[in-house]
Fold:
Amino acid sequence: MGFNVVYHIDKVWFRDFGEMVGEMLDKLTVTCERGHIVPLRLVFFGNPDDNRQYTAHREWLLGLIRERCERFGWRMPLVSYVAQKSLDSGLVMESQCIPQEKSPLVQDKAIVTAAGRVRYFTVETEEGKRLFTEGILPSSIDAPILEQSTEVLGKLGTVLDAEQMDINTIVRQWNYIERITHVPEYEGANQHYQDFNDARSHFYAKTRWEKGYPAATGIGTSHGGIMVEVDAAVLKCRKCAAVALDNALQVAAHDYSQNVLIGVADKIFRHKTTPKFERAKAVITPASGLQVYISGTAAIRGETSLADVGIERQTLTTLENIEYLISRRNLRKHGIKAEKTPEIQIFRVYLKSENLLEPARKIICEKYPHVEALYVLTDVCRDELLIEIEGVAVAEDCG
Structure:
């Protein structure tokens, strides 16, 4: 019995936040009834004014979703609220849903730590065990970034320990970092992203990564501090595998040189730590087929950004990187015998300024007219990069 997640994007136009959420949940209800599916995880992208409003929006969001679940008899889905402004709507939501008949397999769990409560789901089939978390937040989203990062990753570690799952079972990780490229104005300060990378490196050092790191996105937000969300998997059947995918066009992020990292050396590692993720992670099971988690991808060749080339060139280069990454040639190079190139289900497109939307969207829609995509405004991990794209691709037949 496989366990496939269906991805969908809904958008609503500008109005009061509560009204937008209500309309969004109406759309979700129709989608679920027509498709005989139930929501597993909902990721909302909004535009709060500050951290205080971010917290208020998130609580409001959870309350409205809880009311809707009680009305329709749904299990309360996992919820994440990301402070990234939608560029073509007032509010956008990515829903991750499963068939109704698979819903009884999902176990709704929570763990309480000294730093707060974390909700997550587990699913067990003959293929193994899957774990999905909500967006994990720190006790204070106003604390220093390194402190927040260490706390959030510690909470994640507590969840994995409770399920007897090693840290290296994480297959996909989303890392949302407030003002990702900001460097505080004091001596020895690190860029926010480097502080997060240091915390992640210490967390990941607790285990061995013989099968590669997770796919991941490290992306900026306007507010909300640090938030981390993961999918993890322990695969048990003989033909099941989680395979790290490299891209011959790019240096693996975890192998970057010190030249492209911003900040100061970590006191324990004695160097600036690298971003610990793979370009993609392929999860293969006989019943579910092939699912490729595509990490946040940008216009980088080798380890060098394509700077000062404009949004069109950066968008095309980013898509070329993704196309090579999931190509049959690259999959076969990694031992995956795909009969055809996996089909992209969904894109998230992160853009550095509002005027970049139309040229980027035009290129993406021309090349992928049937792929649902959301477009949000945020900083990406390097100042010179204008766009970053992540996604999910699937194929039924593989070996």
